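User: I'm putting together notes for a lab meeting next week and I want to include a structural view of one of the chains we've been expressing. I don't have a solved structure, so I'd like a prediction I can at least talk through. The sequence is below, exactly as it appears in our construct file.
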Amino acid sequence: MNKDTKFNLCQLNFDTTKEITVSISDDKNFTLTPSPRLGSVSVFVEPTDASNAEIYVDNIAKGNAPLVLPLLIGNYNITAKKNNFLDKTETITLAENEKKQLNFELLTYEGTRQQSIDRWANVKWYSIIGTALSVGASYYFSTAADKNFDNYQQSKTQTDATNFQKKTDQHNLYMQISVGAAGGFLVGTIYSWVMEKSY
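Assistant: Thanks for the context. Below is the predicted structure for the 199-residue chain, given as structure tokens.
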């Protein structure tokens, strides 16, 4: 009696299948050669001065960009290196038959420094605006509290007195919150200014 049998050979990142027919008492030899399960990554680097940066896959040099890397499926750390530029690493997960594209943008130390300066400058200006708005709000609520307190003192009925007292307390609370916020923004302004000047 003949029987069709399918043999599968699986190894990490490799796979193959072979179907044969065997009969009772058959003694057959056969070879399974697994095929690699591949994907690919296209790597490009900017700016132009760094476009031929050396590319490393898991710390192993693979050549200079631009290039296409056929890789077994799995996870990889891909690094671009170029003299006078800061190294940059991207982590990818590659599936079978997948085609990925990596675009590295390398920065010089000076470029990274300028980015940090710009970032802290933006934080400083946001903090200054926050401080100004908080100071304005505290002035508004302080003025409103004083006005309601005057109305409270001039109230002719218990109901009016109670309402104006509540408004006075409420505006005083808002004023205190605004003052606290202004203090926080002011600290942020000073800190971001110091950080901006430290680069």
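A couple of points you could mention at the meeting. Helices lie at 109-153, 158-198. The chain has three domains: 1-36, 38-107, 114-198.

User: Perfect, that's what I needed.
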